[in-house]
Specification:
The protein is α/β, with parallel strands linked by helices. Helices cover 56% and strands 15% of the residues. The protein is elongated. The N terminus is likely disordered.
Length: 234
Protein backbone atom coordinates (compact mmCIF):
# COMPACT_ATOMS: atom_id res chain seq x y z
CA UNK A 1 0.00 0.00 0.00
CA UNK A 2 2.77 2.33 0.90
CA UNK A 3 4.51 1.56 -2.34
CA UNK A 4 1.29 1.84 -4.22
CA UNK A 5 0.38 4.95 -2.29
CA UNK A 6 3.84 6.33 -2.89
CA UNK A 7 3.57 5.54 -6.58
CA UNK A 8 0.14 7.07 -6.69
CA UNK A 9 1.40 10.14 -4.86
CA UNK A 10 4.38 10.34 -7.19
CA UNK A 11 2.22 10.01 -10.25
CA UNK A 12 -0.19 12.56 -8.89
CA UNK A 13 2.67 14.95 -8.12
CA UNK A 14 4.07 14.54 -11.62
CA UNK A 15 0.66 15.24 -13.06
CA UNK A 16 0.24 18.35 -10.95
CA UNK A 17 3.81 19.45 -11.62
CA UNK A 18 3.31 19.06 -15.35
CA UNK A 19 0.23 21.23 -15.14
CA UNK A 20 1.97 23.83 -13.02
CA UNK A 21 5.06 23.97 -15.19
CA UNK A 22 3.48 23.57 -18.60
CA UNK A 23 0.46 25.76 -18.09
CA UNK A 24 2.35 29.09 -17.74
CA UNK A 25 4.44 28.31 -20.78
CA UNK A 26 1.31 27.58 -22.74
CA UNK A 27 -0.33 30.76 -21.50
CA UNK A 28 2.56 33.00 -22.51
CA UNK A 29 2.88 31.54 -25.97
CA UNK A 30 1.10 33.83 -28.48
CA UNK A 31 -2.09 32.26 -29.66
CA UNK A 32 -3.70 32.77 -33.03
CA UNK A 33 -5.74 35.79 -31.92
CA UNK A 34 -2.55 37.62 -30.81
CA UNK A 35 -0.22 36.68 -33.63
CA UNK A 36 -2.42 38.10 -36.41
CA UNK A 37 -2.54 41.75 -35.33
CA UNK A 38 1.14 41.77 -34.34
CA UNK A 39 2.09 40.41 -37.75
CA UNK A 40 -0.04 43.01 -39.44
CA UNK A 41 1.54 45.74 -37.36
CA UNK A 42 5.05 44.61 -38.27
CA UNK A 43 4.06 44.32 -41.92
CA UNK A 44 2.51 47.82 -41.97
CA UNK A 45 5.56 49.30 -40.29
CA UNK A 46 7.91 47.71 -42.84
CA UNK A 47 5.77 48.98 -45.72
CA UNK A 48 5.78 52.47 -44.23
CA UNK A 49 9.57 52.50 -43.87
CA UNK A 50 10.08 51.17 -47.40
CA UNK A 51 7.63 53.67 -48.88
CA UNK A 52 9.23 56.56 -47.01
CA UNK A 53 12.70 55.43 -48.10
CA UNK A 54 11.63 55.21 -51.74
CA UNK A 55 10.05 58.67 -51.54
CA UNK A 56 13.23 60.15 -50.10
CA UNK A 57 15.31 58.44 -52.78
CA UNK A 58 13.07 59.72 -55.57
CA UNK A 59 13.14 63.24 -54.11
CA UNK A 60 16.94 63.19 -53.81
CA UNK A 61 17.31 61.83 -57.35
CA UNK A 62 14.94 64.47 -58.74
CA UNK A 63 16.80 67.24 -56.92
CA UNK A 64 20.15 65.98 -58.24
CA UNK A 65 18.85 65.90 -61.81
CA UNK A 66 17.42 69.40 -61.44
CA UNK A 67 20.76 70.72 -60.23
CA UNK A 68 22.51 69.09 -63.19
CA UNK A 69 20.07 70.72 -65.59
CA UNK A 70 20.56 74.10 -63.95
CA UNK A 71 24.32 73.98 -63.54
CA UNK A 72 25.39 72.20 -66.74
CA UNK A 73 24.18 74.90 -69.15
CA UNK A 74 25.84 77.59 -67.06
CA UNK A 75 29.36 76.28 -67.39
CA UNK A 76 29.85 76.74 -71.13
CA UNK A 77 27.85 79.97 -70.99
CA UNK A 78 30.15 81.43 -68.35
CA UNK A 79 33.23 80.34 -70.31
CA UNK A 80 31.80 81.95 -73.44
CA UNK A 81 31.12 85.18 -71.56
CA UNK A 82 34.68 85.33 -70.27
CA UNK A 83 36.01 84.65 -73.76
CA UNK A 84 33.88 87.44 -75.26
CA UNK A 85 35.06 89.88 -72.61
CA UNK A 86 38.69 89.02 -73.33
CA UNK A 87 38.17 89.52 -77.09
CA UNK A 88 36.37 92.83 -76.55
CA UNK A 89 39.19 94.03 -74.33
CA UNK A 90 41.85 92.98 -76.84
CA UNK A 91 40.02 94.72 -79.69
CA UNK A 92 39.56 97.90 -77.64
CA UNK A 93 43.28 98.06 -76.81
CA UNK A 94 44.24 97.56 -80.46
CA UNK A 95 41.79 100.18 -81.75
CA UNK A 96 42.80 102.70 -79.10
CA UNK A 97 46.44 102.05 -79.95
CA UNK A 98 45.75 102.73 -83.64
CA UNK A 99 43.99 105.98 -82.75
CA UNK A 100 46.85 107.08 -80.53
CA UNK A 101 49.36 106.71 -83.40
CA UNK A 102 47.17 108.47 -85.98
CA UNK A 103 47.28 112.16 -86.89
CA UNK A 104 44.60 114.10 -88.74
CA UNK A 105 45.28 117.05 -91.07
CA UNK A 106 45.20 120.45 -89.36
CA UNK A 107 41.68 121.76 -89.03
CA UNK A 108 40.04 118.36 -89.56
CA UNK A 109 39.74 117.62 -85.86
CA UNK A 110 38.11 120.80 -84.66
CA UNK A 111 38.47 120.16 -80.92
CA UNK A 112 40.42 118.11 -78.43
CA UNK A 113 37.77 115.40 -78.72
CA UNK A 114 38.30 112.51 -81.10
CA UNK A 115 35.04 111.21 -82.54
CA UNK A 116 34.84 107.44 -82.99
CA UNK A 117 31.72 106.20 -84.81
CA UNK A 118 30.56 102.60 -84.70
CA UNK A 119 28.51 101.14 -87.54
CA UNK A 120 26.34 98.30 -86.32
CA UNK A 121 26.11 95.37 -86.28
CA UNK A 122 29.43 94.67 -84.58
CA UNK A 123 30.72 91.81 -82.44
CA UNK A 124 33.70 93.11 -80.49
CA UNK A 125 33.02 96.77 -79.80
CA UNK A 126 31.60 96.45 -76.28
CA UNK A 127 34.65 98.06 -74.66
CA UNK A 128 35.17 100.85 -77.19
CA UNK A 129 34.26 103.54 -74.68
CA UNK A 130 35.43 107.06 -73.75
CA UNK A 131 37.93 105.38 -71.41
CA UNK A 132 40.07 104.96 -74.53
CA UNK A 133 41.10 108.58 -74.17
CA UNK A 134 44.01 107.35 -72.09
CA UNK A 135 45.42 105.76 -75.26
CA UNK A 136 44.65 108.45 -77.81
CA UNK A 137 45.86 111.34 -75.66
CA UNK A 138 42.61 113.24 -76.14
CA UNK A 139 38.99 112.91 -75.11
CA UNK A 140 37.16 110.17 -76.97
CA UNK A 141 33.54 110.53 -77.99
CA UNK A 142 32.03 107.17 -79.02
CA UNK A 143 28.83 107.23 -81.09
CA UNK A 144 26.80 104.56 -82.88
CA UNK A 145 25.19 105.10 -86.27
CA UNK A 146 23.45 102.92 -88.84
CA UNK A 147 25.25 102.31 -92.11
CA UNK A 148 23.14 104.76 -94.11
CA UNK A 149 23.47 107.69 -91.68
CA UNK A 150 24.70 110.92 -93.32
CA UNK A 151 26.44 111.74 -90.03
CA UNK A 152 29.22 109.28 -90.87
CA UNK A 153 30.79 111.70 -93.33
CA UNK A 154 30.53 114.82 -91.20
CA UNK A 155 30.61 113.81 -87.52
CA UNK A 156 33.29 111.10 -87.42
CA UNK A 157 37.07 111.15 -87.26
CA UNK A 158 37.29 107.36 -87.23
CA UNK A 159 34.77 104.66 -88.13
CA UNK A 160 34.69 101.16 -86.68
CA UNK A 161 32.47 98.79 -88.67
CA UNK A 162 31.37 95.20 -88.36
CA UNK A 163 30.02 93.14 -91.21
CA UNK A 164 29.35 95.07 -94.42
CA UNK A 165 28.99 93.87 -97.98
CA UNK A 166 31.45 95.01 -100.65
CA UNK A 167 28.67 97.13 -102.14
CA UNK A 168 27.98 98.85 -98.82
CA UNK A 169 31.66 99.47 -98.20
CA UNK A 170 32.13 100.97 -101.68
CA UNK A 171 29.17 103.27 -101.07
CA UNK A 172 30.55 104.29 -97.69
CA UNK A 173 33.97 105.21 -99.08
CA UNK A 174 32.36 107.20 -101.85
CA UNK A 175 30.54 109.23 -99.20
CA UNK A 176 33.75 109.63 -97.20
CA UNK A 177 35.71 110.92 -100.19
CA UNK A 178 37.24 114.27 -99.31
CA UNK A 179 36.88 113.72 -95.53
CA UNK A 180 39.75 112.74 -93.25
CA UNK A 181 38.17 109.64 -91.73
CA UNK A 182 40.14 106.60 -90.56
CA UNK A 183 38.27 103.35 -91.23
CA UNK A 184 38.72 100.20 -89.13
CA UNK A 185 36.92 96.93 -89.90
CA UNK A 186 36.55 94.01 -87.50
CA UNK A 187 35.45 91.47 -90.16
CA UNK A 188 37.76 92.34 -93.04
CA UNK A 189 40.92 90.42 -92.18
CA UNK A 190 41.86 90.21 -95.89
CA UNK A 191 41.48 94.00 -96.34
CA UNK A 192 39.08 93.39 -99.22
CA UNK A 193 36.45 95.92 -98.10
CA UNK A 194 38.45 99.15 -98.47
CA UNK A 195 39.11 99.62 -94.75
CA UNK A 196 42.38 101.31 -93.88
CA UNK A 197 42.91 99.02 -90.88
CA UNK A 198 41.66 95.45 -91.05
CA UNK A 199 41.57 93.69 -87.70
CA UNK A 200 42.67 90.06 -87.41
CA UNK A 201 40.92 88.74 -84.31
CA UNK A 202 41.78 85.37 -82.80
CA UNK A 203 41.39 83.83 -79.35
CA UNK A 204 45.09 84.41 -78.70
CA UNK A 205 45.46 88.06 -79.76
CA UNK A 206 44.18 90.87 -81.97
CA UNK A 207 46.35 92.05 -84.83
CA UNK A 208 45.72 94.09 -87.95
CA UNK A 209 46.57 94.53 -91.60
CA UNK A 210 46.83 97.77 -93.55
CA UNK A 211 45.35 98.89 -96.85
CA UNK A 212 47.89 101.55 -97.76
CA UNK A 213 45.85 102.83 -100.69
CA UNK A 214 42.80 103.50 -98.54
CA UNK A 215 44.94 105.01 -95.81
CA UNK A 216 46.69 107.43 -98.19
CA UNK A 217 43.39 108.57 -99.69
CA UNK A 218 41.90 109.24 -96.24
CA UNK A 219 44.42 111.98 -95.50
CA UNK A 220 45.09 110.54 -92.02
CA UNK A 221 48.74 109.97 -91.17
CA UNK A 222 49.90 107.04 -89.13
CA UNK A 223 53.18 106.68 -87.24
CA UNK A 224 55.75 104.77 -89.37
CA UNK A 225 56.27 102.33 -86.50
CA UNK A 226 52.69 101.16 -86.96
CA UNK A 227 53.24 100.71 -90.69
CA UNK A 228 56.35 98.65 -90.00
CA UNK A 229 54.46 96.55 -87.48
CA UNK A 230 51.77 95.80 -90.03
CA UNK A 231 54.40 94.75 -92.59
CA UNK A 232 56.01 92.39 -90.06
CA UNK A 233 52.64 90.75 -89.43
CA UNK A 234 52.13 89.96 -93.12
Amino acid sequence: MLRQGGKFFTDAFRTIADKVILTPVKQFQPDETQSVPMGKARHSFCLSVKTHTRSLFRAAYGFAMLMLLLVAPLTPSAAQTNNDMALNSSVAQTVNGILSYSRWPPGEVTSNTLRLCIITPVKYAAQLTPDGSAFSGRSLNVMTYPFDSPMLATQCDAIYSGYTTPEQQADLHQRLDGHAVLTIGEQDDACALLNAFCLVITAQHTGFKLNLDTLSRSGVRVNPAVLQLAREKE
